[in-house]
Design a protein that fits this description.
This protein is of the alpha/beta class. It has helices at residues 8-22, 32-36, 40-49, 61-69, 87-91, 101-114, 138-146, 169-187, 340-346, 352-357, 383-386, and strands at 2-7, 26-30, 55-60, 76-81, 95-98, 118-124, 151-158, 194-198, 212-216, 233-238, 241-244, 249-251, 257-259, 264-268, 285-291, 297-303, 313-316, 328-332, 365-368, 378-379. The longest helix is centred in the middle third of the chain and has 19 residues, at 169-187.
């Protein structure tokens, strides 16, 4: 009894926002790791339909193959590991970001075997110290690839190491290193069609020329609170059980919360198995939505009490006697205190992506054109004075 709603309006807004800012540059949707927990098929299908999205970025070859099997036809670039048979690259018309000579040689053998060139991007390690060729290797490498019929060189890329806006100094160092290589290639007229380095948080600070590309992941899903993007994902459940205590009693595993006689508690059928963070015990909250006979929706913030169980969350609804079985519960979404950045801060995490990624992959995900937001609720919230 839990599901995820993806807000079509917010998603389209985020794409349009980036496209407006990057102009003629290509916009590539990063859908790795189940689209940051949003659902790779659901997200890819909408991106396929959106004319502002020019292609996809995956981390794994298996992810790219899955997209092709689901009818995705736009270009796909694998930026990480080749975890499937390499002949699938040819069969599925997949582009590969080449990170070293071992990968290059393996791809060459496949291309020669099938007598069909493989489209590649060269990745430059400008300072992340993870994948890629060193800047001083690129000129000779591009020359060799240009003379090799096994390859079509489509792009050159790098990856910036800073993941927040607090300090841009290292990003600028990397950008200079990358630009120096591109200028060198221009001298020899060896620049490929696509040059891509910027990601969600750096794209809005840079000037982009035709032929450049931007890879957006966190920004696509509205996970950058400091930018004008909107949270796409809302995680919901329902109240499955309600109980009013007749006497004082410790609550749940470990007796970390002691409930009082007369306290009204609700049980939600979600737990850490589903990806709800155990660190939210006795400090998190949920938003309960109750629809009246007049079709008005009242919202109530209910504090999470006791430990998070494998399949159950317990919340205090003593201040909201009107709540009933079946009332919808928002666990995570575009509401104060429930955004991924809020939960990351509350659980002492640094990365709001972690909050979404941990949601169980098998939970159903579906698109909605509009979702109720906090502006539409008639609050009956006494949470501020009752928070544990």
């Amino acid at each position: 009894m839990t599901w995820i709603e993806l807000n079509q309006t917010a998603f389209d807004h985020n794409i349009a926002y980036y496209k407006q800012n990057i102009g003629d540059a290509s916009l590539m949707a990063v859908v790795k790791s189940n689209a940051y927990g949003h659902g790779i098929i659901a997200i890819a299908d909408k991106c396929q339909q959106n004319n502002n999205i020019d292609g996809f970025i995956t981390a794994m070859l298996s992810e790219a193959i899955l997209l092709r099997q689901q009818g995705i036809t736009k270009p796909i670039v694998v930026m990480g590991y080749l975890d499937a048979p390499l002949d699938e690259i040819i069969r599925n018309n997949i582009q590969i970001s080449v990170i070293d000579y071992t990968m290059l040689q393996a791809l060459e053998q496949v291309a020669l075997h099938y007598r069909q060139p493989i489209t590649i991007h060269i990745k430059i390690d400008t300072g992340l110290t993870r994948f890629g060729f060193m800047p001083e290797e690129i000129l000779e490498l591009v020359k060799k690839i240009g003379a090799n019929q096994a390859f079509v060189l489509q792009g050159i890329c790098t990856h910036f190491g800073e993941s927040c806006d607090a300090d841009w100094s290292y990003t600028e160092i990397q950008r200079v290193r990358f630009s120096t290589v591109i200028q060198q290639l221009k001298t020899y007229n060896l620049v490929p069609p696509l040059i891509h380095a910027d990601k969600s948080n750096t794209a809005l600070r840079a000037t982009h020329a035709p032929g450049s590309g931007v890879r957006i992941g966190a920004g696509l899903y509205g996970l950058l609170a400091q930018h004008n993007v909107q949270h796409v994902l809302t995680w919901k459940s329902r109240i499955a059980h309600i109980r009013t205590l007749t006497h004082d009693s410790p609550l749940g595993y470990g007796q970390t919360y002691h409930a009082a006689a007369g306290q009204k508690i609700a049980f939600i059928p979600v737990g850490y198995y589903d990806g709800y963070d155990r660190r939210l015990a006795n400090q998190g909250h949920v938003l309960v939505l109750h629809q009246t006979a007049a079709q008005q929706v009242h919202s109530v913030r209910a504090p999470v009490i006791g430990r998070i169980a494998m399949n159950t969350i317990t919340v205090d609804i003593s201040h909201a006697s009107h709540l009933t079985l079946g009332d919808e519960v928002i666990l995570l979404g575009d509401h104060a205190g429930l955004r991924s950045c809020d939960i990351a801060e509350l659980t002492r995490g640094e990365n709001r992506r972690d909050v979404i990624i941990k949601i169980r992959e098998s939970i159903p995900r579906s698109w909605v054109t509009t979702t109720l937001d906090h502006k539409q609720f008639l609050s009956t919230d006494a949470y501020a004075t009752l928070r544990v």
